[in-house]
Amino acid sequence: MLQQYVPILIFLALAVAIGIVPILAGLLLGKRIPEEAKDSPYECGFEAFEDSRMRFDVRYYLVAILFIIFDLEIAFLFPWAVALREIGMPGLLAMAFFLTILVIGFIYEWRKGALNWE
User: Fold this and answer.
1) At what angle do helices 58-82 and 84-112 cross, to 10 degrees?
2) How far is CA 13 from CA 5, 27, 64, in A?
3) How many CB atoms lie within 10 A of CB 70?
């Protein structure tokens, strides 16, 4: 009964080793030259200042959401393009409807000024 789990245990051991071995190799073999600039904390590409709970501009989140939306759009386009011959005209119309909704949303965001970074 336990012999059935041997491949799973080997797989888990390899996964842990693949994760831990490069970290340990970097710690043991890498040079450690501490510098103030390298050791200083930063967030979002700029130097941390004041309180860590400060509010970010809402445009930052709007751009992030837009990126996710259009990134997912591309993720849906690849399998659709591969299966287009099998799904035929209904698939083409469904994707046209999907892209139309996304373009309308993009135009709305553009006119609202979500893409203007001042």
Assistant:
1) 160
2) 12, 21, 37
3) 13
CATH 1.25.40.10 for domain 56-118: no
Residue-range domain boundaries for the chain: 56-118
What distance lies between CA 93 and its chain's CA centroid? 29
Return the SS3 of 28.
Answer: helix
Residue with tokens 């050791």: 39
- Does residue 43 sit in helix, strand or coil? strand
Which are the contacts of 56, defined by CB distance < 8 A and separation ≥ 6? Answer: 44
Query: Would you place residue 42 in the very low, low, confident or very high pLDDT band (cuts 50, 70, 90)?
Result: low
3-state DSSP assignment of residue 51: coil
CA 110, CA 116: separation in Å to the nearest integer? 8
Here the tokens at position 99 are: 């892209």
pTM over 0.70: no
CA distance 107 to 37: 42
Cα distances from 64 to residues 58, 71, 78, in angstroms, run: 10, 10, 22
Closest residue by Cα to residue 102 from 57, 79, 51, 68: 68
